[in-house]
């Protein structure tokens, strides 16, 4: 039964994982851990944090495979991983605030700004959970996956096509539609026009 796992589709592996099949879980991990690790590392310079987020991602997959709603598995895995990364950053920030006395605050803020791309991390966290994140949640999943891959993760059209398993032309057309839907969703969230007075 486990001998053909490398030939199984992601969806078939995920269904088997939902049934408690550890061989399918191992096959899913082997297939996706590499690119997930690479993308997480592009967003976070902390090697240990990336390793822990990757592990948490697959623990979540093991526990909630049955909750998968049929969207592209790679996109679903990345959504879990990206949220785990944001959660990890928030936990690190809370710990730093608790452990840092007011006298050390300026020094620690300076050191962290030198050591990590904190501005970029805040922007990415805002994309996940701010008004843009809310708007992203309102557009269709296949368009959202393309927008997250190309804009949030900075992948090329070719990389996005490979990740999502769709042709490059489809990536381009979905990206155009996604931007239009996102503008519309943002307009409904924020009644004031973007770009200044009417």
Task: Give structural attributes.
mainly alpha, globular, RNA_pol_sigma70_r2, 198 residues, single chain, 0% strand, Arc Repressor Mutant, subunit A, RNA_pol_sigma-70-like, RNA polymerase sigma factor, Rna Polymerase Sigma Factor, Chain: A
Give an account of the 3D structure:
- With 198 residues, the chain is an all-alpha fold.
- α1 (10-18) packs across α2 and α2 (22-43) packs antiparallel against α3.
- The protein contains ten helices and no strands.
- It has two domains: 8-117, Rna Polymerase Sigma Factor, Chain: A (Orthogonal Bundle); 130-190, Winged helix-like DNA-binding domain superfamily/Winged helix DNA-binding domain (Arc Repressor Mutant, subunit A, Orthogonal Bundle), CATH 1.10.10.
- Mean pLDDT is 77; it is low at 105-118 and 194-198.
Q: Oligomeric status of the shown chains?
A: single chain
Just name the CATH architecture of the largest domain.
Orthogonal Bundle
Helix content: over 70%
- Structural Rg: 19 Å
User: What would CATH call the class of the largest domain?
Assistant: Mainly Alpha
**SSE sequence, one letter per element:** HHHHHHHHHH
Average pLDDT figure: 77
The major beta sheet can be summarized as: none
Give the termini separation.
64 Å
Low-confidence stretches: 105-118, 194-198
Taken together, the total number of domains comes to: 2
The CATH topology name of the largest domain reads Rna Polymerase Sigma Factor, Chain: A
What is the SS-derived class? mainly alpha
- The CATH homologous superfamily of the largest domain is called RNA polymerase sigma factor, region 2, helix turn helix motif
InterPro entries: RNA_pol_sigma-70-like, RNA_pol_sigma-70_dom, RNA_pol_sigma70_r2, RNA_pol_sigma70_r4_t2, RNA_pol_sigma_r2, RNA_pol_sigma_r3/r4-like, WH-like_DNA-bd_sf
Protein name: RNA polymerase sigma factor
Keywords: Sigma factor, Transcription, Transcription regulation
Family: Belongs to the sigma-70 factor family. ECF subfamily.
């Amino acid at each position: 039964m486990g001998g053909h796992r490398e030939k199984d589709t992601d969806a078939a592996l995920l269904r088997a994982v939902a049934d408690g099949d550890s061989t399918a879980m191992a096959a899913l991990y082997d297939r996706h851990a590499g690119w997930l690790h690479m993308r997480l590392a592009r967003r976070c310079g902390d090697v240990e944090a990336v390793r822990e987020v990757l592990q948490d991602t697959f623990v979540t997959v093991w526990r909630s495979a049955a909750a998968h709603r049929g969207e592209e598995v790679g996109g679903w895995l990345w959504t879990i991983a990206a949220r785990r990364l944001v959660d990890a950053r928030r936990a690190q920030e809370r710990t730093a605030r608790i452990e840092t006395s007011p006298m050390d605050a300026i020094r620690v803020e300076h050191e962290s700004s030198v050591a990590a791309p904190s501005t970029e991390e805040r922007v990415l966290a805002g994309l996940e959970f701010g008004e843009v994140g809310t708007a992203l949640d309102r557009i269709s999943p296949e368009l959202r996956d393309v927008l997250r891959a190309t804009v949030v993760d900075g992948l090329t059209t070719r990389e996005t096509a490979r990740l999502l398993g769709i042709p490059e032309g489809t990536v381009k057309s979905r990206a155009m539609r996604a931007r239009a839907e996102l503008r519309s969703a943002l307009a409904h969230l924020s009644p004031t026009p973007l770009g200044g007075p009417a």
